[in-house]
Design goal:
This protein is mainly alpha-helical. The chain has 16 helices and two strands. It has helices spanning 15-40, 48-70, 83-105, 114-138, 147-163, 170-190, 194-206, 228-242, 245-256, 263-287, 290-296, 304-326, 334-352, 362-371, 385-413, 416-423; strands at 4-5, 11-12. Strands 1-2 form a two-stranded antiparallel ribbon. α1 (15-40) runs parallel beside α3 (83-105), α4 (114-138) runs parallel beside α6 (170-190) and α7 (194-206) runs parallel beside α10 (263-287). It is flat, with a radius of gyration of 24 Å.
Length: 424
């Protein structure tokens, strides 16, 4: 049977034929999903189970590629009253669930034969990333509003790649992850929702190493049972992706395309996100001294607080400054942009004001406003805190430079009287 294609690339078929194709797809995939649900109900181990799961997703992805490539599904022509869309969402939920279980299995590979385990972990991670990409390409509504879980899955698999360096196919896995991340940014940009994808990424970073109510160091569903080595791999994965030009270019293009009337709102949202991060750093630093961290994890090679600051200063600071440096300032929005940047500077000024005071304890005062901890006369607290301190300084300095540049752009485009009032 041959079908003709429409101008938009989708296959032209009548409602009855389309329903038959969809029913056939469901009949094939549904038994595979039942098998996956069985595996999700038992404790998963490296071995035959993972090989079988990998085979299931490989088969499912071949069918999804047909839907994506031939544009078999178009939501406006869906005659199933949302039935097929819900089926795609079911597949996506299982993708996330299996991904979480894979990351729980990951730490066990540190104490077993890596050569026998790393290959299957990379293969199944690649198939899961491809499944998420195909589903989002078929219909973005499949992903929904929970972008944090998708970001978390991607960075979890980058961390997996970093920890299993000598596995075959690791570069292919990383390429697919990077492609999915860029795809998300581009799709949300087309929907004028780029701020959602950017700030969901920032919010996701907080969930990597947050303690739970019992004081456990790792609370994310992707990291239950993981060691501090896994935790450090997550920090490295964040820094690696967020600093790549291949990822930064789509983000830059998306930020530049933000309508001028929405620029000030983006800065306000950035201010809120930065405020939350600074509060996060202060609470964590106050609650968890390094000695307490080591009691929770005797094998810890690096303080968890330092890893958190690493995520903030190296990775997310790059995104924050990229957003500020990419925003388009015009004569029409310069006034609102100036006000918003000033509000953001107010948040930073609460801590930075201590650095311009000529007093012996000014630097320690700065550290106290950021961390909530008292340091000695040399600005030194517990062992290894020097690493965290210089990263905190880097974070504030980079944000200050970007804010200053954006504010000067806004001033240069304001009416003369308005700019003079802003400088008073």
């Amino acid at each position: 049977m041959q079908f003709q294609k429409k101008g938009d690339g989708s296959i032209d078929m009548n409602a009855e034929t389309r329903k038959s194709v969809f029913d056939f797809f469901v009949q094939i995939v549904e038994p595979l999903l039942r098998e996956l649900n069985i595996y999700l109900k038992v404790e998963m181990e490296v071995g035959f189970a993972l090989l079988h799961i990998c085979t299931i997703f490989c088969a499912t992805n071949k069918l999804l590629v047909c839907f994506m490539g031939e544009r078999l599904y178009i939501r406006t022509e869906d005659t199933s009253r949302g039935g097929l869309l819900n089926f795609f969402k079911l597949i996506y939920c299982i993708v996330l669930s299996v991904s979480a279980r894979i990351m729980q299995v990951w730490p066990s590979t540190f104490d077993t034969d890596k050569g026998a385990n790393t290959g299957v972990l990379h293969r199944i991670a690649k198939e899961l990333v491809l499944a998420a990409w195909y589903l989002s390409e078929i219909e973005y509504e499949v992903v929904g509003t929970d972008l944090e879980s998708l970001w978390l899955m991607m960075f979890a698999f980058v961390a997996l790649r970093l920890s299993l360096l000598y596995s075959l196919g690791q570069q292919t896995l990383f390429s697919e992850i990077l492609h999915l991340g860029c795809h998300l940014v581009n799709v949300l940009s087309e929907l004028c929702q780029v701020h959602n994808v950017i700030f969901s990424l920032c919010k996701m970073a907080r969930s990597l190493v947050l303690p739970d109510s019992q004081g456990a160091m790792i609370s994310s569903k992707f990291m239950n049972g993981a060691s501090s080595l896994c935790c450090e791999a997550y920090a490295k994965s964040m820094n690696m992706v967020l600093c790549l030009q291949e990822f930064r270019h789509p983000v830059y293009d998306a930020i530049v395309s933000i309508p001028e009337g929405n620029v000030s709102g983006c800065i306000q949202r950035l201010k809120t996100d930065i405020s939350e991060y600074l509060e996060w750093i202060k609470v964590e630093s106050s609650l968890l001294a390094e000695t307490e961290c080591r009691k929770l994890d005797p094998k810890n090679s690096r303080p968890h607080f330092d890893i958190k600051v690493d995520i903030l200063a190296r990775g997310l600071c790059d995104i924050y400054t990229l957003v500020l440096d990419s925003l388009a300032v015009t004569a029409g929005n310069s006034g609102l942009v100036g006000v918003s940047v000033n509000d953001l500077m107010t948040v930073l000024r609460l801590s930075m004001s201590n650095l311009v005071i000529v007093q012996p304890e000014s630097f320690n005062g700065f550290l106290y406003t950021v961390t909530g901890r008292v340091y000695d006369g040399n600005g030194i607290g517990p062992k290894n805190d020097f690493i965290s301190i210089h990263l905190v300084l880097l974070f504030f300095f980079c944000l200050y430079v970007s804010c200053r540049s954006l504010y000067q752009q806004a001033l240069s485009l304001m009416p003369l009287n308005t700019s003079r009032k802003c400088l008073e």
